[in-house]
Amino acid sequence: MSASTQGDNLRRWAADRPGVYEVWYTTWNDPKTGQGFWLRFITEAPTLGSGGVPGFGEALRGELWFARFDPHHPERTFGIHKRFAGAEVASTSSPFTLTIAGSKLAHDHTVGALSGGGHDVRWDLRWVPAAHTLLFYPDALYRAEALPPTMALSPNPRVPLSGSLHVDGETFTFDQAIAGQTHVWGKKHGFSWTWAHCGELDDAPGTVFELIGARLRRRGVTLPTMTALALQLDGELHRFNQLRHLLINSSSWQAGRVTFRAWSPTMRVDGELTCAPDDMVNAPYVDPDGTELWCANTEIADARLVIWRRGGLRWLLHRRLASRGRAHFEVGGRDRDPAVTRPHVLVT
User: Fold this and answer.
1) Domains of the chain, with CATH numbers?
2) Mean of the per-residue pLDDT values for the chain?
3) Of 179, 235, 228, whose CA–CA distance to 206 is shortest?
């Protein structure tokens, strides 16, 4: 186990601190069926006196989330999540573990169960931890005393996952399927955002990319889009996510489609992710202050990347990369997209 990457999974907020949230999510695909999966462990501590969504409350709580995406039978795609009292949340730091209502997440495995809304899910999964953490944002932000509203990094950006998953009577067994595990913490989500990830690109073993696009709002003014990209290609990590990149990179998003461009003086990456709106679930998020948001997510998207290298004054084509049904992305914001009709359901 890598002690350095394990430290990046540790809880960033004290358990009794109000006005913060923390998320650990894992995404992967079944090599046999192409189905995609989204598993989330969440701790939330609402702001004292917050309003917003009815029943949001002020007490610490944990949540478990799961979604299954079926590319061949969209009617079987679903998402469920359940809330638990703070007394059912526990964690340790050496080694890292987070336990919510008996379900456990560690740095190299997770085991648990979630049921409700007519669905029953159980999992017992393990992976070999990554040697290095992938940082999503400029290095300076991770050292800053005044952190941005949301921070994220991936202690396990591309790891071999094995074990079993049981979904509504169907059993999946995995033997080194490709997965990614990420840690997010903050006080407030962006006004609008997109996230994208893919660790399975054709004819490019070991390649992984991670995209974050965000629009923030300050005093009623929506700020320019900031876009950060990291690409591990042919054994080399290219980080287009430093302060100098955030405003010269570009991205745009809507339900079912994300486009982006990132570049440095020597390399440029153009990309697109697409899916049918029926391949997404619409997940209700809530900020610690009670503000309601919506996140349309899929784990069975297509991805296309075109990579250019500088040749004198010209850009020369270097590689074309593609992934069919094994890319993951989401688009989120304050308004629910009517094109994505399948809800991620809160169950009891």
Assistant:
1) 3-346 (2.40.370.10)
2) 94
3) 235
